[in-house]
Structures are given as structure tokens and as C-alpha cells.
Amino acid sequence: MSEITRSKAAREKAEKAREKAAPLGDDIDLDAYSQVAEEHPYQDDPSRLPLETKQRMLETGVVLDDASQRSGTFLQVDHSVVHSKAGQDGLEVMSTVTALEEYPWLKDYWWRAVAVDADKFTAQAELHQTHGYFIRALPGVKAIQPIQACLYLSQHGLAQNVHNLIIAEEGSELHIITGCATAPIEQEGLHIGISEFYVKKGAKLTFTMIHNWAPKMAVRPRSGIIVEEGGVFLSNYICLKPVRTLQMYPTAQCVGENALVRFNSVLVAPPGTIMDVGSRVILAARGSRTEVVARAITTGGTIIARGHLVGQVAPVKGHLECRGLILSEKGSIHAIPELEGLVEGVDLSHEAAVGKIAEEEIEYLMARGLSRDQAIAAIVRGFLSVDIEGLPPQLEAELQRAVELSEKELL
Amino acid sequence: MLEVEDLTVEVEGKEIVHDISFNVDIGETLVLFGPNGSGKTTLLMAIMGLPRYRVTRGRIVFKGQDITQLPVDERAKMGIGILFQRPPVVRGVKMREIVRACLGGREDGAVIEQLAQKANMVEILDREVNYGFSGGEVKRSELLQLMAQSPEFVLLDEPDSGVDLVNISLVGEMINELLQKDRLRSRTNSGLLITHTGHILDYVDADRACVLLYGGIWCRGNPREILVSIKSHGYEGCAVCQK
Ligand SMILES: Nc1ncnc2c1ncn2[C@@H]1O[C@H](COP(=O)(O)OP(=O)(O)OP(=O)(O)O)[C@@H](O)[C@H]1O
Ligand SMILES: [Mg+2]
Known about the structure:
The structure holds 2 protein chains of 2 kinds. By secondary structure, chain A is α/β, with parallel strands linked by helices. Chain A is built from 7 helices and 20 strands. The mean pLDDT of chain A is 91. In chain B, the strands form 3 sheets. A 6-stranded mixed β-sheet of chain B has the order 6-9-10-3-11-12, sandwiched between helices. The chains are: A alpha/beta, B alpha/beta. Chains A and B meet through helix 5 and helix 6 of A and helix 2, strand 7 and helix 3 of B.
């Protein structure tokens, strides 16, 4: 990357934060991971990727055999961009490295929604950035199909440090599906993903992220979202596969009047998995609203489900919901909802329930002729099926498919 | 069809139903009256086989087979169905799915729609089971599930309570269908029906009735006569009457 576009100040801050442990999540020794990756060739036709890779990507909602289903595609394997293409006028898809060179003004967006010195992970992403995607919809442009992005880790022991930037310009509409996955091997690795989202006035951004990691992976996404007047940000996060340690706490700021933010997450933690996942929304403008819903299932792993709503002005409205199911003796779910009202007239609420499946519900279904296992399966399936208002049908189908795939393993 | 012999039922270690015996013949509808807390629901739940209702003495025979030890799902598969007085909310599970399951898992969208139409439940098919349902919707949802399941023996725990005048005739129609009331000779389905008000009896013909008091059966006879007597003398009248 040309050093001119890089802010010197950011670099200095990053240098200082090099050793700064994150406030949440296990500390990770960055030196245990390699920064050097083998190059992977660019593919004009992503359907030519190895079958196995395509299959793994497909499991995260990334479709490579039918370009007509997507308005754009970005694929990164390790440190190489292997495909990048926008399929509709007014949409841009490229590496953020390329984008920073092409658009000098982008430096105003760089590290604005996420602090460069938040912790050692943000610092590492600044000091050793390895691409990431830039996706932008020009003013008033509505993406017909979703844009997909996949960040794929194939090299053992590698640290992937991506920095993504997403801009939905005024009045635009974007649907993004991102899948993050590892090669189906006993993969060890570290994924650091910085994502900064800018939802401009009246724009709508639906962001669906499916994570398919591996039992030895460490994952540290760092996301910040800034939503302007009348903007809508809908996030769906699905992580149903084992991962050694995952910690993230995306933070959305409603800075414009009547902005709307929704976070839905569905988490399944098998044995050996630690997930510390939260969503934070700062309601900083009048009339802004948010809804944060988390569903968590443990089959033996640990889930910490956080939520934090801050009402800085009035009137604003926010609701936090967490439901957790413990399906194994060993697993645990810790729901930590926080509500912070800083002025009179904020309307913030939360509801949380953690436990096993109610015996009464199982018996009710059994009285209709379902076996015990069938009854449990129906309840778990219902629990996982995310029913999200306003989601385009195609994305909904995508989500449903991801959930169904994991159900088979779960039950 | 159903024989209950010297049945004693415990809930949470407390004996609620004591040494009850009765039977229901093929094609017959038996009404069960009794004041609040007399053990009517307990008796029905025990017949259905819900594990919290423990049979400590006696036995239940269905179609000639002793089912006292059979788990609830196997009883359902044998042809017993129940309309719950207070069914639980099952979050996440849609009405459509539970109806499909009641149909034995057959993926027949058309049949589901058709049944839902009969129950006036079409708009509710995509809602979560019993979540936020009104009193009448709960009853119709229960009956919709039963119609999909189509049991030979139906336990109906207060199908008429909390149901308005328009809905009650619909509820009556559905019960009549479940009990094959349109057939005169070849009727094979039977039922046990609990009602406080007897309103449902204006829509559904019942053959016999009995009164449950203090966990035991006190009176047997014609449903209308017993209802009239309860209405005029209360259950205290039953307690002193030794009919
Ligand atoms: N789970 C339970 N734990 C303790 N007591 C119970 C339980 N279930 C029922 N009982 C008691 O058993 C008795 C009979 O209850 P049941 O529900 O069978 O009465 P009912 O005749 O159906 O009354 P209603 O007309 O009000 O529906 C009541 O005193 C009730 O409190
Ligand atoms: Mg009762």
C-alpha cells in the first residue's frame, strides 16, 4: 500500500497499542502466528476454485457457481485476493488496499468507526494489514442481489489481518453476505477482522455474516457501525461451528435522527468452544431505535452473550433480548445485558432467559405423537430459526440453509 | 374402548384422584363434571400418560391393551389425543410445523391449509405455538392439532371455556367431526369431555355423564339431567345425593 494514504498518526497509535490486551476475551499471543502467507492466484472465474473450497464457502452462504445470484463477489484466501468483482452499476467491490489508493478521501473513513488503538488486534490490523473488502453503493443505488464476500483461511498457523470498509451512500440499499471459513483441516490460525460500516442518510444496509471456523481457530472481529439520519442497519450473525476462542462486541452508533439498528445473532457452542459475543448500540440521536436479539445454544461450550444499549438523548427506544438453551451437562451460557439511560425519556428494556428446554413443552409435543427426540429437535430447530422482519427472502433462505446444515450435526 | 380400573393418581407426591373406575364404549361420549380442583384435569393427564401425573394404583386399558406404563407418545400413536386446558407456549415452533407433525410428518401443505381453514386458523399458521393466542385461539389451535392427529379417543379438557358465542359453534363443529357425530351406526371414535358450563353440550351430543368430586366419582347418569341438577343444587347437591 502506498504509505501516503496511510495516516502517520494511526500508525503511531497502533505502535503504542501493540501489546494492549483486549478488555474481553482470552489474551492471544500474536507472535505464535505467522504473518507470511503463500500467494494464491487470482481467479477470473470463481467457479474454477477447488471443489472443496467452494463447498466450504457455500456453507457460509457464498455461491460461486451462479454469478446471477449475486451483485458482486469478493474472495480472499489467506493474504491473497483471489476474486473481486462488482456485478451492477453503482456498486463497488474491491480490496480495501486498492480502494485506499484509488480514493484518497477514504482516509476519512479509515479507523473512524473503530479505534485503531482499541487493542492489540486493531493495532496488528493497522501494522500488518492483509487486504479486506471495500464495498460501496453509490447514492440512491439499490443492489438487486446480495453482494458476497468470503475471507478464507487455508494456511496452517497464519494470522489473517483484514480491514473491511462498507459504505452505503445516501438513499442506497445494500445486502451483504459474508462468510468466514477455514479449510476443512485441523486448522490453527488467527483471524482479525476490522469492519467499519457507514450507513448514510436514508440508506439501508443488511449485513449477514456466517462464521464457519475450526476447533483450533482464534477469532477477533472488531466492528463499528455509524448510522446517519433515517439509515437502517440490520445485522445477522450466525456462528454454529466450533471455534477455540471468539470474542467480538460490534458497536453501532445511531448519530442521525430516526436511525434504526437491529442485531440478530445465533450462536451454537460445541464442547471446546468459547464464544464471547455481544452487540452494543449507542442511541445518540432523537428517534433512533434498536433491537438486539441473541439466541444461544450450548452443547458443551461456553457462551457469554452480551448486550449494551446506551440512550444518550430522548426520545430513543431500545430492546435487548437473549435466550439461551443449555443442551448438555457441561455447557454454560452467561447472559450479560446492560442498559444505560443517560437522560430522562429514554425507553430501554431487556429480557433474558437461560435454561434447558422446558419438560412441559417436550411432553406437549409428545402428546401429539412426536417421540422425545423429535420433540426436542422441533424445539431446537424453532429456537434456531431466525425469523427476521424485513430480510430479503433470498437472505432468509440463506440463513435457513446454514441453520439446517448445523442442525443435522447438532441433533 | 377405554377402561379405567381403580385408578389412583398422584401429582408431586400428593394423591389427587382416588380409586376411580369407569369405561367409555366405542363411539360413546362421556361428560365429566366437577368443581374446580376436583381432579378432572389430573385424570385426563393420567389417561394421556403425562409423566407428572403418576398412577400409583389401578390401570388404564385402551383397545384391550394395558397402557398404564406406556409413554405419552406411544399412547398418542395408539390413537389417544388431548385438548389441553392450558397448553404451554412453545417458542420458535410454528403452528404449521406442529400441525404437520400431528399429521405424522407428511409434508402436505394443502391438507394443512384445509384443516386450518376449518379451524379459522389460517392466519395463525405462521405464528409460534400458543404464543400470544387469545382464549378462543388456544382452543381452536388445540382442535386444529387434534383434527390433524385424528385420534380415535379424544380427551377434551374444557373446550368451551373462554370461547365466545361465535367461536363455540365452530368449536362444537370441530368436536363433532373428531367424534364422528355425523355417523349413526359406524361411529368408532369416542371421547371424554370436561365442561363447567355445559355450553358445549348445546352443540355436541353426549351419551353419559359423571361427576368428579374430591377425586372420586359421585354420580353417573344423563348429561342434561346432571347439568340441570348441578345448576340448581350446586355440587353440594351432588355431595349429598347418592344416586
Ligand atoms: N403440579 C401440581 N402440583 C401440586 N398440586 C397440583 C398440581 N397439579 C394439580 N394439582 C392439584 O390437584 C388438584 C386437582 O387439580 P386439577 O387440575 O386436576 O383440577 P380440575 O378438576 O381440573 O380443576 P379445574 O376445574 O379448575 O380445571 C388441585 O388441588 C391442584 O392444585
Ligand atoms: Mg382442569
